[in-house]
Q: What sequence folds into this?
């Protein structure tokens, strides 16, 4: 599925999403000096402020996005990992301090999602693109309901 289909599905499930405006997205790009991939920009425009319950408890929304790379670097340091971020790597997700995910901003369409789990030596591609990442969360929620 494409990102638009996934977000439409989230809305049809009744979640009240809150997105970012262009100025807020530009703030992120300016802060990290990158151009964000198109699918991630769409995610931000539709639910970059709140997922209305989707991704609850995860650090992935605007109020935390400016801290995520720092958190990820701390985890890498604690793990004695030799991995170092490149300028174009953008950390967009963290889970309770032991997982983070990032994208390569040089890939403007369907960038793979790299995951790092505490104790790993290197990040690995876990999802082929952002829509797959979100689709997994929908499946988890539907399994609970």
A:
């Amino acid at each position: 599925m494409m990102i638009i289909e996934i977000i439409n599905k989230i809305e049809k499930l009744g979640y009240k999403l809150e997105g970012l405006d262009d100025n807020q997205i530009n703030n992120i790009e300016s802060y990290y000096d990158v151009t964000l991939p198109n699918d991630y920009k769409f995610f931000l425009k539709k639910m970059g402020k709140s997922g209305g319950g989707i991704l609850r408890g995860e650090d992935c929304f605007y109020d935390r996005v400016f801290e995520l790379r720092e958190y990820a670097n701390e985890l890498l340091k604690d793990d004695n990992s030799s991995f170092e971020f490149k300028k174009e790597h953008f950390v967009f997700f963290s889970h309770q301090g032991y997982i983070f995910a990032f994208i390569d901003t040089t890939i403007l369409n369907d960038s793979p999602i790299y995951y790092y789990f505490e104790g790993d030596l290197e990040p690995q591609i876990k999802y082929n693109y952002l829509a797959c990442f979100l689709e997994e969360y929908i499946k988890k929620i539907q399994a609970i309901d």
The chain has one domain: 3-143. The mean pLDDT is 94. Strands lie at 52-55, 89-95, 99-104, 113-117, 124-127.
